[in-house]
What we know:
The complex is a heterotrimer of chains A (246), B (279) and C (350).
Chain A (H helix, E strand, L loop, with lengths): L4 E6 L5 H7 L3 H9 L1 E5 L12 E5 L5 H13 L2 E5 L1 H5 L11 H9 L22 E3 L6 H13 L10 H7 L24 H4 L16 H10 L4 H12 L7
Parallel strand pairs in A: 1-2, 1-3, 3-4, 4-5
Chain B lengths: L14 E10 L4 E8 L12 E6 L3 E6 L9 E7 L3 H6 L7 E8 L12 E7 L3 H13 L7 E7 L8 H9 L4 E6 L9 E2 L16 E6 L4 H11 L7 E4 L15 E2 L2 E2 H4 L2 E3 H4 L7
Chain C lengths: L3 E4 L3 H11 L1 E11 L2 E8 L25 E8 L5 E4 L6 E6 L1 H15 L5 H8 L1 E6 L24 E5 L3 E6 L2 H10 L3 E2 L2 H18 L11 H6 L5 H7 L7 H4 L7 E7 L5 E8 L20 H21 L9 H5 L7 H12 L1
Parallel strand pairs in C: 2-6, 6-7, 7-8
Antiparallel strand pairs in C: 1-9, 1-10, 2-3, 4-5, 4-12, 8-9, 11-12
Helix pairs in contact in C: 7-9
Amino acid sequence: MEKAKVAFFDFASCEGDQLQVINLEEDLLKVVEAVEIVSFREAMKGHSDDYDIAFVEGSVTRRSDEARLKEIRKNAKVLVALGACATLGGVNLLKNFQEAENVRKFVYGDKAFQYETYPARPLKAVVPVDIDIHGCPINRHEFVMVFKSLLLGKKPEIPNYPVCVECKMAESICVFEMGMTCLGPVTRAGCGACCVTEGSYCWGCRGLVDNPNADSQREVLAKYGLGLRDILNKFRLYSGFSEVAQ
Amino acid sequence: MKYQPLADISPYLPQWAEISRIQKLTESERLFEMHLADGEPLGHKPGQFIELSLLGIGEAPISISSPPGVENSFELAVRKVGNLTSAMHRLKVGDRVGIRGPFGTHFPVDETQGKDILFVAGGIGLVPLRSFIKFVLEHRRDYGEVTILFGARNPSEQLFLDELEDWRRRDDLRYLESVDRPDPNWTGHVGVITTLFPYIHVDPSKTYCVVVGPPVMYRFVIVEAKAKGIPDTHIFLSLERRMKCGLGKCGHCQINHLYVCQDGPVFRYSDIFDLEEAL
Amino acid sequence: MALQIIEKSDLAFFVQNLMDHFQLEGVQSKGQSVYGQAFFYGTIRSPAELCLDFDCTVMPPKKYFLPPQEALFRFQTGPSPACFECRPNKPLVIFGIHPYDLKAISQMDRVFAAGTPDPHYLARREATILIGIDPTHVAPRSFWASMEAAVVSSGFDLMMTDLGANYIVETGSEKGKALLGDYAKVRPATSDEVRQRVSQRSHIADMGQKRGLTFPKREIPILLQHSLTSPLWEENATKCLSCGTCNLVCPTCYCFDVWDDMELNLTQGQRLRRWDGCLLSDFARVATGENFRGTRTSRYRHRFYRKGQYLFFGILDDVACVGCGRCAAFCLPDIADPVEVFNRLKEKLN
């Protein structure tokens, strides 16, 4: 059987999700062996436009990005959004809630006029996306799971339950009991509740579950002392593109 | 090819079945004829289901579409909807699949002997119901009058075309069909399945009504059946739920206190009419 | 076997001995939350780690019999497909289980043995020795006394009660008897100590009465019979986050999902099961997309009916709630508390 051809691309991002792929350690060799990687700028030389599966990291932040993304969509049979910037818009989207001119000046100083920019958006705002691998960064195990599913010709089972489920399975103490607040109850699982397990709280980097009870989550956050502004900021950090953050 | 036999120790372990024939029914449905690799009969009754495994893809409940036969083979009609069923559509004759079961309750094959039967099938509801219809037609003299109502969304979703043609021609049964949305070639009745009821006559004192279809269909059909005077105890339904383990453990298929995988999928309407979650 | 005494100074000897001969699991403090210490079951690596005066653990001991995730079998595909059974049988001793959790384990035993027995659960259970301990503290949301789980007379191999100066131990099985005989320094209890145990236990039951049902537990199924259309379900469910926490922390919740995991070589893999919860939004969704319990209200209500009625009449002849109060303690919108719900239903009915 001919090996599937795979390509990696990036838009506005820290490239940390591709780094997670490179960090697969021994699994990386098996991944490389199972397919033919034709493009992966962060890891290898060479490029080809002949590919079946495109993994795309990053959010779209310039009008000129759109043509390139559409070209990738045209070439790929399956387009996978890789990481929070690609699936949700990610932290890049924070600028959408600020005055554009100020942001440009802050970032580029007196060279601002040289750089093109527009409100950041996830890939799906520009082209149809087949699969979302969420996370900031992505979870390596989930990447491998999606990768295997694609090779098996099956739709990957991305969790539609919240982080609380994995948190309980990991036997962590609830963040709210530790005097902090957490987006875990409405955030899509798949990360193994890694942040909470390591003593932090859920930042919401995997986006919301399909039917989040955002009203109740707001009430809970308020009950634990968060003001309206803080609550909104919590949702906006990663899920700025969804309506709960508006 | 050699296959390792499976030890009969865990109820979660499947046994092997081999595909002997594949027939395309519609664009999205295929019929698989298969037999257990050990040559034994499946031992099912009409209306029961199996859990079908494709290792690495998963497991899903599939209703058995054929009556118990002399050949020890059985048929599954599979609509491509999820991961498992899509993968099944890629299988070839000679491929092996995993089977657990048969599970669940069956249609009232004994209780209806000597009685009239009104079969009501909506869409792929015909798939499980076919096992009972064929059983009755194979033992035609044991049953009274047979009426079959079959409704599909459109003509291209009609299944088992050869058999439908046979039913249209037979004079020992009455077959009425309908589609919701006709195409230019359709000359038959148009409308939802309940619009066929005015055309049938039943003797409520000896008629059983057996209904299988999409969830929305049941309530409307039951109203019609009751209007014909058929008592609740003589109405049978087969209900779909998420049956994962088949053993009444995993909890997914519960309708109130009932486990569809054990107490169903075939229910007597009088047993479930007052259950909030049933229909 | 008559009641035995283990002196407190001899406890470490017993624990050390068990550690040397078994995998010993017990309650440990895992850290401080704003409400106090958080207790968990984990592997005991030194006698000092074992905590016996906890109020309630965050997670129940069900993970030892129904792990969050376990393999049902391994398989290989390709030209010679095959399945290989996975049957766990690692011997364990669990030291320090409160009566309500013992009662929950007894209920789970019945559930997994009913109908087609579940060999995975039963094998783990069979390989495990349970050492119970009567509570010395009551967690703020516990209500085990009104669920008739303050004291248990069976479902353990050994049952200990803290008498202050020492532990008094009841033997519940041959396994327990052997454990005491082989690994502990014991002496028979005096009649005075036996009397002390009785009064200590009635004291415990009193402590547990601080909160509870306003009516007898056996009325719950009938109460639910009349409460199907109560507005309370929707009122509370509006706040439900569908996070499944109430299911996951419950010692009598055992629903599971099954799926296949393949190795990267795409020829070997395993069929796994993991905890699921009826409060999660996709619990009753089928492949065609239809969700048979698609509303928060229907899911929220289902849990109470399953605990209070379905399992009662189906398998247990008892309410499948032991009053640990974990669901109440960990539900963020605070709508999961069975005492609150049942008492309010009762109030509305009267």
